[in-house]
Amino acid sequence: MTLAQTVAHPLRIPLLRGHGFLIVAIIYAGLAVSVIYPLLAVFVQAFSEGAGLSIEKIQEVFTTPNIIEAVFNTLIISVLTVVMAGTIGVMLAWLVARSNMPLKRILDPLNMVPFYLSSVVGALSWQVIAAPRAGLLNSLFAPFFDTPPFNVYSVGGIALVLGLFYTPYVYLFTLGSLQSMDASLEDSARMSGASKLQTAIRITLPLSAPAILSACILVFVTAAGIFGVPLVLGVPGSVHTLSTLIYRAINEYPADFATAAILSSALFLFTAIFTVVQIMILRGRRFTTVTGKGYRPRQVDLGRWRWPAVGVNTLYLLFVIGPFIALLLVSFQDAWTGAFDWARLTLANYHKVIFVDAIAKRGLINSLFISTIGATIAVAVCMLLALVVHRTRLPGREGLSHLAMVPVTVPGIVLGLGFLIALITTPIYGTLWIIMIAYIVHYLPTGLRNSESLVQSVSRELDESARMSGATWRGAMWRIVVPLVAPGMVSMWLLLFVTYIREVSSSMMLFTFGTETISIALIQIMEYEPYGVSGAFGVLQTVLVLACVAFIRQVSSPRQSNA
Amino acid sequence: MHDARRTIPDASSQGVDVSNRSVAVKVERLVMSFGTVHAVGGIGFDVVPGSTVTLLGPSGCGKTTTLRCIAGLEMPTAGRITVGGHVVFDGENGIFIEPERRNIGMVFQSYAIWPHMTVGGNVGFPLAISGVPKRQAEERTRAVLDLVGLGELQGRSAADLSGGQQQRVALARALVHEPRVVLFDEPLSNLDANLRERMRTELQLLQSRLGFTAIFVTHDQEEALSLSDHIVIMNKGLIEQTGTPQDIFKNPETAFTARFLGYSNVFPGRLAAIGDAGSVAVDLGEGRRLSARWRSRSPPRQGADCTIAFRADRVALMPANDPAGGNAFPGVVETVAFLGTCFDYTITSGAVQVQAEGPVDHPVARGQAVSVAIAPEHCHAFAAED
Ligand SMILES: Nc1ncnc2c1ncn2[C@@H]1O[C@H](COP(=O)(O)OP(=O)(O)OP(=O)(O)O)[C@@H](O)[C@H]1O
Ligand SMILES: [Mg+2]
Question: Which CATH number fits domain A64-282+304-330: 1.10.150.130, 1.10.3720.10, 3.90.850.10, 3.40.50.620?
Answer without folding.
Answer: 1.10.3720.10
